[in-house]
Amino acid sequence: MLAAFALAFVGALFAGQMEGTAERVLVVFVSMLIALFVAADPHDDSDNITEVPRNADTELSQALTITSHPQLQAFIDASADAILMVESARVTAANQVALRLLGGNIVGQNVRMAFRHAGAIERLSDPDAQHSGHPIRLAGIGQKNQLWDMRIQTMGPAQKIVHLADRSGTQAAEKMRVDFVANASHELLTPLAAIKGFIETLDDPAAGEDAATRSRFLGIMAKETDRMQALVRDLMSLSRIEAEKYDPPQTPVDFAQIISETVDQLKMSQKDRGGDISVDIAANVPPVMGDAGQLRQLASNILNNSLKYGRAGTPVTVSLVPSRSGAMINFTVADVGDGIAPEHIPRLTERFYRVDSGRSRLVGGTGLGLSLVKHIVDRHRGHLEIRSTLGKGTTVSILLPVAQV
């Protein structure tokens, strides 16, 4: 038992001298793992030892027995990351995550057969390699687009512990960020290019002095400016909602009133389609805990989408009712239209994703409407569901938790 405490203490001291957080965590994990093995060793009689070891050599000799410890598998299986023990370039133990990743028969094999990755093989097969625990980025292990951080820690002569952490999510987030910047730039440059072109045309006396041409061009410029303004407004809203996503709203809001007001505004502003809206709000719908401005934006985006993409002259049905349990309210908007193919539905809430880019730009969409809705629903701890049938139409359902009295 004293040896176990000593091992943990030495590991903590060593970790404290390292700079990176990940490296410190790995060193502490390894030292604690060894300490647990030593403490749990059924043959350990260190409690009867009266003299504490005076140097690290004795502790290292105890650490060398880790790969043959009877409880090794149970300890490494507790990790959510892939962990392998390698001795003399051969895999001696692996947890279940590593077996699923590299194959169920890797234990006992040479690292060349287990990894099939040149970078990993080179570092694991070299008995003289010095390992600091710094991450090594690996691609091509597991699925095609998966990325892994491999950390290697020397346990003793020819013994290494290998830790593989999946970093695919971080890579996907970075790709989304890059795509977002590229798409936003493109969406802003398109109307700017049109406006600049029309300004240059109007600067020509032949076109600028023609009243009809001037009026038509100025109308297009105003429309493009409105589109650019809407895009900037949505970008600002998205940024603000993302900044607040871990801060759930704390104010009771009458969502039924927000829907009624939004419908009234649309009926006045959209004379051609406003009359197609049909509203069914249950009596005594409880308030929700929410942000009134964001919920107003949510209702407006959903209703505007249904009016834009629903078939002209067909109804847009709006309903608000309590859920069966009474713990949530169900806001549903259904339109009659062309519908959406099933393969597009999972991506509808992605930024700038469009099923039909030409049609979306024609009706004035920014490509951020449903992405904003998804972020608002997530912040309010709700649930968004989109169902659609080709040739029949689309239904959007949103569940929001009621305010607790």
Give a description of the structure.
There is one protein chain. The chain has 405 residues and is an alpha+beta fold. The chain has 3 domains: 2-166, PAS domain (Beta-Lactamase, 2-Layer Sandwich); 167-243, Helix Hairpins (Orthogonal Bundle), CATH 1.10.287.130; 248-405, 2-Layer Sandwich (Heat Shock Protein 90). Helices cover 47% and strands 18% of the residues. The strands form 3 sheets. A 5-stranded antiparallel sheet has the order 2-1-5-4-3, with helices on both faces. The model is unreliable at 41-64 (pLDDT under 50).
State the end-to-end distance: 54 Å
What would you give as the CATH superfamily of the largest domain? PAS domain
Largest sheet data: 5 strands, antiparallel
Oligomeric description of these chains: single chain
Lateral arrangement of strands in the main beta sheet: 2-1-5-4-3
Structural class: alpha+beta
Coarse shape: extended
List the helices and strands and how they pair.
Blueprint lengths: L1 H15 L4 H20 L15 H8 L8 H6 L4 E6 L2 E5 L1 H7 L8 H5 L2 H8 L10 E4 L7 E10 L2 E8 L1 H35 L2 H4 L2 H33 L8 E2 L1 H15 L7 E5 L6 E2 L2 H18 L6 E7 L5 E7 L22 H6 L6 H11 L3 E7 L3 E9 L4
Parallel strand pairs: 7-9
Antiparallel strand pairs: 1-2, 1-5, 3-4, 4-5, 6-8, 9-10, 10-12, 11-12
In short:
This protein is an alpha+beta fold.
Question: Which tags fit this structure?
Answer:
405 residues; five-stranded antiparallel sheet; 47% helix; Heat Shock Protein 90; five-stranded mixed sheet; Beta-Lactamase; alpha+beta; 14 helices; Helix Hairpins; 3 domains
